Amino acid sequence: MNRFGILILALFAASSSLHAAGFYQANQSASAAGVANAFTATADDASAVMYNPSGLAWQDGVSVAVGVLLNYRNNSVKIPGGIAPNLSEEPTVGHLYAGWMPHDGRLGVSFGFSPLYQVNNTWGAPFGASPSGSTKITIDHASFDTVYALSSTLAIGVGADWYLARATLSQGAVSFKGKDYSGFGGHISALWKPAPAWSVGAMLRSGSRLNLSGNVNETLKIKLPDMLTLGVAHDFADVWRLEGDVSWSRWSTLKDLNVVAAGVITQANPLNLRDTLKAALGLTWTWRENTQFRFGYAYDQGANRSAGFNPVISDQDGHQISLGAGGALSGMHVDLAYSYTFYARKTATGTYAGTYRDRRQAIMLSVSNRFE
Predict the structure, then answer these.
(1) Which contacts of 355-359 are long-range, i.e. CB under 8 A and separated by 24 or more positions?
(2) Is 329 helix (H, G, I), strand (E, B) or coil?
(3) Those residues with Cβ within 8 angstroms of residue 52's Cβ, 6 or more apart along the chain or in another chain
(4) How far apart, in whole angstroms, are the C-alpha atoms of residue 139 and residue 116?
(5) Is the separation of the CB atoms in 188 and 201 below 8 Å?
(6) E strand or H helix at 7, and its extent?
(7) Distance CA 137, CA 341 (A)
(8) What number is the average pLDDT over the span 296-324?
(9) 71, 150, 242, 362: which has the highest count of C-beta atoms within 10 A?
(10) What is the spatial distance between Cα 351 and Cα 346, in angstroms, rounded to a whole number?
(11) Domains of the chain: which residue ranges?
């Protein structure tokens, strides 16, 4: 099969399962996932549209990438009556990215579509009618960017975000199903190469307000967080690249996931979230031309506090270890990554008191090409 056939096949596989996974889906491409998503100062393939669109300035021609992500989760809570599992299964998801930077040009454009947020929890019996049943929130994301190369060492990007949200929530006999396709936000980015072998990247994404409408004038309001990521990368001996990233997310703006009808709360889901920090370190070894091996570690603060913990959003402090590899295959570039995330046990107090345990695994495949 030629390179165009492989690209079309991968695109079909991705587009058939474009749903979100994880409240914030950090894994947006296999090349980045292999280094625990420490990719802001690298951004050297089409997935730059998600991590740092300014990286497009160093990608002459048309860059295209598609991929698929398989998620696995083991989540439970220990209460006096025993251990109760989270019965929801993590979905398979996909992504699509494309960018164009004219040869010897200064102005480029890019587009990306991927899952960015998802809540998928079913706790069942441990806490009675609330929040038993299920909570499923899917927020897909489309990104549109314009990138300008100020010089051979500095580029900036400005872009718009479009969010497409769907939600199904149930508590006992009460259920809600709604959607909102009118969530908008924006972002800015920069990539600077101040000296040979050094690069510095930054990405600031604004939050967005979503107002999901259901039947009988029911509404669910969601405020997505502002996010800021800074990254620094350095190359050693032309074969090693080390990058460190730090990210901040403003989760404290999301106060609740209450369903309201005619001014009356029909499903109450108060939240007590904190702003979070994430630190990631990634190492890439270029074994030979177009062949890389990747290693990564990340520490990610959970947004949920112990006091007022609400398992509708089961989010805890996590340690992620990642492995990845990439190389040329049939004229395309193929990347594969695996990550395992261990979440520290959290002993919650209040209405949903218990000791929460969480483990996640992910396998990710991306296929990309550049047409100069």
Answers:
(1) 355/77, 355/78, 356/75, 356/76, 356/77, 356/78, 356/309, 356/311, 356/314, 356/316, 357/74, 357/75, 357/76, 357/77, 357/78, 358/73, 358/74, 358/75, 358/314, 358/316, 358/318, 359/73, 359/74, 359/75
(2) strand
(3) 39, 40, 41, 43, 157, 189, 190, 191, 201, 202, 203, 229, 231
(4) 6
(5) no
(6) helix 3-15
(7) 22
(8) 91
(9) 362
(10) 15
(11) 3-371
Burial class of residue 332 in the structure, from the number of CB atoms within 10 Å of its CB (0-12 exposed, 13-18 middle, 19+ buried): buried
* 244-291: pLDDT as tens digits: 999 999 999 999 999 999 889 999 989 999 999 999 999 999 999 889
Q: What is the pLDDT of residue 49?
A: 96
Closest of 55, 44, 56, 62 to residue 3, by C-alpha: 62
The SS3 assignment for 8 reads helix
**Percent of the chain whose pLDDT exceeds 70:** 91
Is the domain spanning 3-371 CATH 2.40.30.170? The answer is no
Distance of CA 78 to the CA centre of its chain: 28
- Per-residue confidence band for 156, with pLDDT thresholds at 50, 70 and 90: very high
Element (H, E) at 116: strand 107-121
State both tokens at 119: 């809540």
pLDDT at 351: 82
Angle at 221 (CA atoms; ends 93, 133), nearest 5 degrees = 65
Q: Which residue has the tokens 């991927």?
A: 114
Query: Shortest CA distance to 143 belongs to which of 92, 200, 206?
Result: 206
